[in-house]
Every structure is written in C-alpha cells, then in structure tokens.
Amino acid sequence: MKKEAKIRTIFMGTSEFAAEILEALIGIEYDIISVYTQPDKKVGRNQELKKSAVKAAAEKGKIKIFQPVKFDAEEIEKLRDQKPDLIIVAAYGKIIPKSILEIPGFGALNIHGSFLPKYRGPSPVQNALLLGEKKTGTTIMLMDEGIDTGDILAQKEIDIYKEEAAPELLKRLAKISSELLIKTLPFWISRKIVPQKQDHAKATLCQLIEKTDGKIFWTDSAEDIYNRYRAFQPWPGIFTFWKGKNGMRRIRLNKINLIKTDPETKHHIGEVFQFGEKIGVQTTLGVIILEEIQLEGKSSTKIGEFVNGYLDFLGSVLK
Question: Which of 175, 195, 191, 197 is nearest to 90 (CA)?
C-alpha cells in the first residue's frame, strides 16, 4: 500500500525484529506519522546511553519519535492529538492501555512472532527453541486488553531449521512478518478481512527469561541443553561452573554442538573428557561438544587453546 492512501499510522516497537518491520513499511512509503519506542538505556561498564533499533530506523527515515516512560494522561493526549487511523505494534515491550487501543478507527494491530495461540507473551521465539519446537510462525492480530489474546487477521507457519538459534530465527521471522503485514494491510483497510477468534483452550504462555535461566544442568539431555543454547543467544547465554586450581569459576559456553547418543566409555554426569579431537561433557543422555568457551573475566577461547592453558580441565566435573 502506498502513501497516497493516507492511512495515518503510528508504529510502536523497540527490538531488531520490530526495526526490520518498520524499515519495510518505510520502504513502501507507508504513511508513518510517528514512532513510539522504549527510552534509551544505559549499557556496558561505562553506562553509555544506547538507542533502540527502532529509534535508529525512525531517525534514518526522518520520522518523529516518542519515548514515553509510561502512558499517563498527558502522553495519551499527545497520541490522540496525532489523529492516527491505525497503530501497528511489534515487540514494543510496554503494555498499551485500552484508551489508546480505542483511538484509531482501524484499531491497533500487533505482529507476534509465534503461531498463536501458542506462546503468548514476551520472547515467543526463544521459548519455541527452548522447548525444541519443529515449527513456529507469525501472527497479525487485532489488539485487545489481554496479552496476545486478540482476534487473528493473518498467520503464516514456518519450519524451524535444525541448528537455527534465536538471532537467525528472529531475523527470518521479521522478514516473513513484514511481507505478511504488507500483504494484509490493504485487505484490512478495505474491510475485506473478518477477524478470527483464537482458540483460548489451546493457548500456551511464554516463560519470562531471566539471566539465571542460562545455568546448565548436566542432568538434562544433550538435546535439551543444546536447545537452551539456541534459545538464549545472545542473551543471557548459557553457563556452567568449573572447580579448578583457583576455586569455583563460572564458564560461559559460547559455541557448542551435540551428540545425542552416549559414548561406549562410561563417564560421570558433567565430566569433561576427550574423544578423538573433540572435547565433550557427559549429560544424562548424549554428549555436549565444547567448541568455544569463556572463563569469567577472560576472553572467549577455542576449546583446544583453553585445554592447553588449563590442563586440569580435562577429567573435571562441571557443576
């Protein structure tokens, strides 16, 4: 749909996923009158302010930007004064009150990175990978007061590739979502779509991801650990603890692989051992292959170099 349609649209989003969708809309000259995104955040040791990916895309597109801390009466009135016909939301990270959802005549549409009603809530892509799903999808829905409970306008299901991690899957879903949104908008604006209610009985909710969720339990299977690794890239990552000569230290597993079957030689759960040219860790079922790891306070290191520098690593039991 071209700019001549004059559907005054406000876009709300924060992440890279959302930024790619915004860029696609800018690319077809869709009438984005303003962008709402999360306030800049302090990051790193120097606590430097970092803008969101959506803010960067909006600046590049010369679109007016709003970054409210919360939607109080003043902020809602500012939004109302813009007289939007439509609001498009993608990975914004804020609850949008009903009073805002009711402003635009064409409602507020949300692009959600799952095949709803599965994985409602934040981080649907990470949760699909964490649970070893073979398929996922994207959904465009009409927003209501619930969390991803609105009526569905369009969906597309896709396969998850065997070794695909969160960044790759998010990137692919963003492209698919952009294409689906651009295809769906003209039909929605011309009232040719009848929204379909979700089957709430089949709904599942996302696990909220926290930094501590990256802790590995070697009593899990190698496949479960590998799925955790795929889901938690780049944040929070996965980690374990190693008791070396200098005491217990945390190790981040930056690059791993897996073998689903156990070796013929028996090893303790969590034991680090060598077979052939590979370094593995025994799990309840299968072996995790270490390729690149990072001792806390140190740089990321290929496993061969790490073992040469810490000879007591082989034969140790990770916790």
Answer: 175
